[in-house]
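To whoever is covering the structure queue this week,

Two jobs came back overnight. Logging them here so there's a record in the thread.

Job A:
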Amino acid sequence: MRQHQSPICETQLIPSALLHAILRTPVLPRHRVKAPRRTTVLEPSHHIEGLLESLVRSINIVPAEARAVTDRSDLSLPLQRIINKGTNVGMSWKCWTDKDLHVWLFVGGMLLGLSRQMGSPVLQVRQYRERGLPDTANWVIDRQANWRRCDAHDAEA
């Protein structure tokens, strides 16, 4: 299995009840499993929002002094459109801004097929800044609440 370098500096633990609820998916054998041709994103839920926030906090990309945005109408129209497109296909979102009007918007959803194959929740996350889309990645959380990037190659291992 290929090792990935990830920007994880500190792990943000999520509540054990939430992790238990998400990890109820049975662990499937990882050998003889092929990557799915098509990915399915689950409907938005508080579980996915909790995972998304856990991921963002664990990779330390949002400054501590940034404030959370809970109402999409507080954002620019282009960012509102991104959120609407994501929520229309079952994704959740989390956003932060700072006093200098920098924006950190994360739109993501759980990839059901890949989560089952990996035996752990896998989020597909798109990160937007005030100038556009700098990063898109799949992230997997393990049973110790540690996040790491993953790709289709990980599912085949």
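Job B:
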Amino acid sequence: MPNPNWIHPKASAVAPDLKLIDDLLSGTRQMQLNRATYLPKYEDETEGEYRKRSEAVANVYGGFKRILQASVGMLFSAPAKLVDADAAIEEHWQDLDRQGMRGDVFCRHRAFDAIAAGIGVLLVDHPPRPDGVVTAATERELALRPYWVGYKRQHVVNWRVGRVAGRPMLTAITLREQVETEDDDVGIVSTARLRELQLTEQGAQWRVHNEIDGEWVAGPWGTFTTTSGAPLRRLPIAIGYVGQKAGPLEAEIPLLPVAEANVDLWRLETNTRYLEDRTCFPQPHVAGELAPDPVTKVPPTVLKLGPGQVVVTTPGSTFSFVEVRGESLNQLRESAREKKKAMAELGLSFLMHEGRQETARAKQIDASSEQATLKSAAVGLTDWYNEALAIHAAYLEVPAPTMQLSPSFDALQLDPQFIQALGVARKSGIIRGETAVRILQRGGLVPEDIDPSEEALMAAAEVLGDTDARREVLP
């Protein structure tokens, strides 16, 4: 039997980027565990010095994660709605994953993963139907109905695409799962398993592979069916493309430049912290030589400092404490501030999906992919959810409904708290004045020809509650 754990070349190619994103979202501890990857050793650096530098890790700045959260928050500023849904689907929507999660909440969580990775995967699964006649009461008692399972892009091991009825279609996919089982000795054991799906002449089928003593052991095949028992003629897998699609299960990661900038910032702040720890205290300095010991007549090889210690030098030599002036540290701190500005503006270019960008990095992300905007991400997510709804409806043998994201996610809501936060971000240098004023212009609070100024931001914050005065207070 072929190895079910073979890795698709496209999955191998994107794996380092996906690991970077996972590690970054996991926070400081995970970044420290992988410091050899993100904080490389200098060529002439000793192992001891590298260990000290790599242990002085700075806390991970949460810029990338906040941009993801802002994206999802804007898309789901109002609950996603079903349109023309059958009564059964409306009922299932209230517990879409059979774990008690409502459909709009489930979709919100999956959107975070999909935007982070550029691709999301949904399996519309259902329990096996018992043999014989199944009544409605039995269906309800055994929960014989579809439910959704979300997978990250990182969970996709391999896949195949073929032509079915003249159209390209996903014909096989293997997904990695982590399952927890009870163990009498240690309590709970977490193990990996593989879920293999194939489209055959008998319909869509599935089986599970468990790893036992280093070998993958396959379970029996099961068949995906409709509520009447007819085999499903497509894999019940919906693929969501948030980044620009390059092929089946292949898409750009729209916010990868932001994640990379966030890692660069962490590396810079870690190095700065290490240098601060090394230079924040005055350093002892001997210009010349230490005087020999009066008893042994041998010059000391170690400079001893502390209570009761006296430093004696030879005639003409001096002992003093020297302090580092710190100009280079100031440059490192300024570089860190510039990194934060670049991240903020890259994030805004994604959220605001405008053609005008303020930094070369922002121009690069916009030029590389027309899909790298929140608006196009919303289209990809909506298509993804609707494909899963079509599979859900196919099982029930009812017309497929559609799902709509909040139609107002694209409208910039400039409430007083937002304006005040914008002013703080501008004043602290996290974003440039041009960026702040452009946001206000888009919200209709600032005329097109206004110059960037703190006064404009503060005036907008003060009058935001007075609709009639909004446009008159600002020059």
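Note for Job B: The radius of gyration is 30 Å.

Please reply-all if you pick these up so we don't duplicate work.
Q.
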